[in-house]
Amino acid sequence: MADDYRPVERVMGGPAGWISIALPTVLFVYLLGWLPQIVQGPQVLGIPWVPSLDVSLSVLLDGLSLTFALLITGIGAAVTLYSARYLGDHPDYPRFVSYLLMFMVGMLGLVTADNLIMLFVFWEITTIASYLLIGFNADSAKSRRSALQALLVTGTGGLILLAGIIVLGTVAGTFELSQILTQGEMLRAHPWYLAIMVLFLAGAFTKSAQVPFHFWLPNAMAAPTPVSAYLHSATMVKAGVFLMARMNPALGGTDAWFWTLILFGGVTAVFASVMAMRQSDIKQVLAYTTLMALGTLTMFIGAGTHYAIMAAMLFLVVHSLYKAALFLMIGIVDHATGTREAGVLGGLSKAMPLTGLAAALAAISMAGIPPMVGFIGKEFMYKAGLGLEGFAAIWVTGMIFAASVLMFTVGGIVALRPFRGPLKDTPKTPHEGPWPMLVGPLVLGALSLVFGLLPGVLGHYLVGPATHAVFGEVREVHLYLWGGINTALILSLLTFAAGWLVYRVHQPLRARLAAFEARNPIDFDAGWDRLLDGFKAFAAWQTALIQTGSLQRYMAVTFGAFVVLVGGTYLLRGAFQGVPVPAEGGVHPVQWAVLALIVTGALLTVWTHSRMTAVTGMGITGIGVSLMFIMFSAPDVAITQLLVEVLVVVLIALAMLRLPYLPRRSKTAFRKGHAVIAAGVGSVTGALLMSVMATDFDRRLTTYFEATSYPEAHGRNIVNVILVDFRALDTFGEITVVAMAAIAAFALLRGAPRRDKEES
Length: 760
Hints:
Layout: H1 14-32, H2 35-40, E1 43-50, E2 55-61, H3 63-86, H4 93-112, H5 116-134, H6 141-172, H7 177-180, H8 184-189, H9 193-207, H10 216-219, H11 225-233, H12 236-251, H13 255-278, H14 282-303, H15 306-337, H16 353-367, H17 373-386, H18 390-416, H19 435-453, H20 455-471, H21 487-504, H22 506-519, H23 524-546, H24 551-573, H25 589-607, H26 611-631, H27 635-658, H28 672-694, H29 700-713, H30 718-726, H31 728-751
Helix pairs in contact: 1-3, 1-4, 3-4, 3-11, 3-15, 3-19, 3-20, 4-5, 4-12, 5-6, 6-9, 9-12, 11-15, 12-14, 13-14, 13-18, 13-22, 14-15, 14-18, 15-16, 15-17, 15-19, 15-20, 16-18, 16-19, 17-18, 17-19, 17-21, 18-21, 19-20, 24-28, 25-26, 26-27, 29-30, 30-31
């Protein structure tokens, strides 16, 4: 669907619209009731899910998870109300609602999960739901490409994260976060710490679009505006930030964590701010400012000081409020004017005063101007940066200053330029948006003002508890609008001055950035296309090499891999040294005779050039194995083996009479490679069996079946009882598979022409 507005035919989207609005609203009100309890301390609730794997459906509600949950549901309610008017008349709107609610539930589960496996499940739900949302306009090639790109990048990161979760759970001895977060000292001293950190950060960086994984996020703007507002403000892209914040008590506090996060975060913040200046589509401008915010949050979580964590949690709320409001405002502008180009828009405040008010409130907070809460967030970010030592203080403070200057400029581009001055000609005649679309941006913008005037409320109920959860211990959190004249205030004033100067020259600056980008050989988005082309070429080469259509090739590769991998592992681990050597004279002459029969059948199978003779040789080998079972007191297994061998020989012989004639291969071509593989498989399998026999025999299952076969299943033949009673469903499934294969084979044989020649 084109990202535009059409007259509503349903009433607020019909039942799907009302359900989508009611669900997040009710959840938001319910979660508000938890605020007083969470201020007192975290709450852990849960029930077992897969006890054998130590997986529970457990919920951890603390300041961090509750802050995210309130943003997810509160902004979710505004977005769904907006969507009911914006997309309510679309024929696929119910499908859109299902995707959006799926995404919302995934995010809520992710941020409240106390079990790492449960967290990963919801992590992947958000990946799939975002793919469906970004690609909602399935008729657009751009939407499909952007959705696939987001899926592959974040999905790959998710698989890497899963590896980290498994390693962390193994080291910690549990998957429960509430227990893992108390083991930080042990984890940081563990030899696998660096591997765990890298795996977790790879998942977080791909999800939160840190450089060099940033390119998928601006492309996600192919999604409808409500999706962009939701993904960029409170949900998916902040999932990686949440993961880093959640794991900070366990994995933070090391030099590796510190420098990795502040370097990647700082580069992402400034790079994204510069790229935002380059854009002319105001929706794309906001997309890059989201990258700036994600880099900033990453940088302060990495810094790890009390002030840094407090600044990160405050900026998390600040950014969510102004970013959702601005995205929703842009949707109204696009719907009312038919364009999002900054150079085309101007003077809209006369025709769209309420939209202009929402834009002004959000942009002033984004620019960090008092008395908005954005000013408080910027002040504390400067205080956090100045509180570091050495190069880290210079780096963090410098990155924040550069990013804040550019954010001030972007605020002017997004909210000042389109609404000031004379009204310009646009594709559509500008008009004010409908109330369902105005409520969200106006309320979110007003909250930025309310929290700026009442920072103590925000600090007590959200920022304080969230800071305690991320920092790992309780510290005093005191937010204020005016902290006196200090270095942070001076830096803020310099930010305003520099931002205004950059805004005055942003148009020629944008042209220069465009020229530089055209000459820049590094293009991550184009590199992604080349990477996919390389994967496709590799897949084609691999398919041509392996999928030849030759059954012999498939079997040779399968059994050859078995010999190399299993046999090689045995050699590397020295396991063959433990294989017992049979004592001389321990084999009866009759057993030698049976062994000779088995070997004769095998040699006949290998040496002959007649398929019928080869089948007969295999049957001889099978009969010899049956005799072995009889000699070692397993008559029931021997009878089964004998019946199978006779039936296989007879059935294959009958089937071959129906098969078409195949030209005979050269009699002189002895299949040496196949013989080598067969000898290798036999040797490795024999060594494996001998190694198993040399170990202590665990009789627990044997004892259980001996004790229960007759009382519970009324059978004295233990093997039969296991197959028919204890594993009845497995046996039924195997019978079903064999029956289906037999029916398919019968159908193929009936359709094949009768052979007109016989093989000798």
